[in-house]
Specification:
The protein is mainly beta. It has four helices and 16 strands. The protein has one domain.
Length: 310
C-alpha cells in the first residue's frame, strides 16, 4: 500500500466489488476492490477524485487566504447594513472524506475600492490539501470574485487552479447589462451570452445567504455561470434543526442545493448546507455524497459566540 492514510479506505471496501471509476467525469482503467491501487503518471487516483469534488463543493457554494478569527467590523460605505456578511468576515473550514482530514478552505470578504461611485467587495476563497494528501495530489486553489454589494451581482472572477500537475488560470468578466461574459482561458478570449442576474460560483453563496427565506418550504432559483456554461441552480429550505460540531450546538437551517452540473457529483448532484438561523446566516456545514462516502466541510473558525446555543 502506498500510504497508510488510505489503507483504512481500501479495507472498508474490501468486501465490495465496486468499480472505482464508476460515474467519474473521466475514463480510468477498470479496477475493483480489493485489488490494490496502482499509481498513474498523473497522480494517485483517490486523492484526485476527492479533491476534484471537494474543490467544486466549496467554490460552487460555497468557501481571505489567512486563517484567523472573524472580524465583524462594518464599513457602512461598502456594504448595506442589511447584508448578512460584512467586511472582515473570514470563515475557516476543515474538509474531510470518510473521517479522513483532507484539507482546509477559507472564505473571506474584503473591500475592493469602487467602480465609479459604486463600492465593491472582493470575495476570496482558497483551498489547500493537508501534507499527507499533498504527497499524492497537491491542491492549492484560489478564487476571487468582485461583487457589487447593492445588486449582489458579480463583475469579475479569477480562478487560479493548482491541482496535481495541472496549473490553469481562468478569468471571467461579467457585463450584466449587456447580457454577456468574457471568458479568458489559456490566453484565448471568448464572449458568451448569459441570462439576466447571473451569479458566479462564489457570489451564488452570498446571494443565497442574503435572499433566501430560512422558513422550511421556502425556495429560490438562480442563474449560475460555470465552466463557460449557464445553469439553473435550485435552493430548497428543508428544516430547522440543532446540529453539533466544533462550534458546539447551533440552531441551523438545512438547505438543499440542487446542482445541475453534470459529471461532478453522483446521484442527483445534491449538496446540503446548514446556515445559522440568525441574522448572519453563516454556512457552518456543507456535505455532498460522492462515489464512496461523503465530503464534509465543517466550520472551525469564524462563528460568533452569539450564534452558539447552550
Amino acid at each position: 500500500m502506498a500510504d497508510p492514510l488510505l489503507r483504512q479506505v481500501y479495507q472498508q471496501q474490501a468486501s465490495r466489488s465496486v468499480p472505482l471509476h464508476t460515474g467519474l467525469p473521466f475514463s480510468l482503467p477498470h479496477m475493483t476492490f480489493p485489488q490494490p491501487i496502482r499509481h498513474r503518471q498523473r497522480g494517485s487516483l483517490l486523492p484526485s477524485v476527492l479533491f476534484h469534488r471537494t474543490w467544486l463543493l466549496i467554490v460552487c457554494l460555497i468557501l481571505c487566504a489567512m486563517n484567523g478569527e472573524i472580524s465583524w467590523a462594518v464599513d457602512s460605505a461598502v456594504l448595506p447594513s442589511a447584508r448578512p456578511f460584512q467586511i472582515g468576515e473570514q470563515l475557516t473550514y476543515e474538509i474531510s472524506w470518510m473521517k479522513i482530514m483532507a484539507g482546509t478552505a477559507v472564505m473571506g470578504v474584503a473591500a475592493d475600492g469602487t467602480n465609479g461611485d459604486q463600492p465593491l467587495v472582493r470575495l476570496v476563497t482558497t483551498a489547500q490539501s493537508r501534507p499527507a494528501i499533498t504527497k499524492f495530489f497537491p491542491v492549492d486553489n484560489r478564487v476571487e470574485s468582485i461583487l457589487d454589494p447593492t445588486t449582489l451581482l458579480p463583475e469579475h472572477l479569477t480562478f487560479k487552479r493548482r491541482e496535481g500537475k495541472k496549473k490553469e488560470d481562468i478569468e471571467y468578466t461579467f457585463h450584466q447589462k449587456e447580457g454577456t461574459v468574457i471568458a479568458v482561458k489559456g490566453g484565448t478570449a471568448e464572449t458568451l451570452q448569459i441570462p439576466p442576474d447571473t451569479q458566479d460560483v462564489i457570489s451564488c453563496l452570498y446571494y443565497v445567504r442574503s435572499e433566501v427565506s430560512l422558513q422550511p418550504g421556502s425556495s429560490l432559483t438562480m442563474n449560475v455561470h460555470h465552466d463557460k456554461k449557464n445553469h439553473k441552480l435550485q435552493v430548497h429550505v428543508e428544516a430547522i434543526e440543532t446540529i453539533s460540531g466544533p462550534w458546539g450546538k447551533v440552531q441551523a437551517a438545512r438547505v438543499l442545493v440542487v446542482m445541475p452540473f453534470q459529471g461532478i457529483f453522483l446521484n442527483e448532484g445534491n449538496i446540503r448546507v446548514w446556515f445559522t438561523n440568525d441574522e448572519r446566516r453563516i454556512p457552518i456545514r456543507m456535505k455532498a455524497k460522492v462515489i464512496i462516502g461523503s465530503i464534509v466541510a465543517d466550520l472551525v473558525s469564524g462563528l460568533p459566540a452569539s450564534s452558539a446555543t447552550q
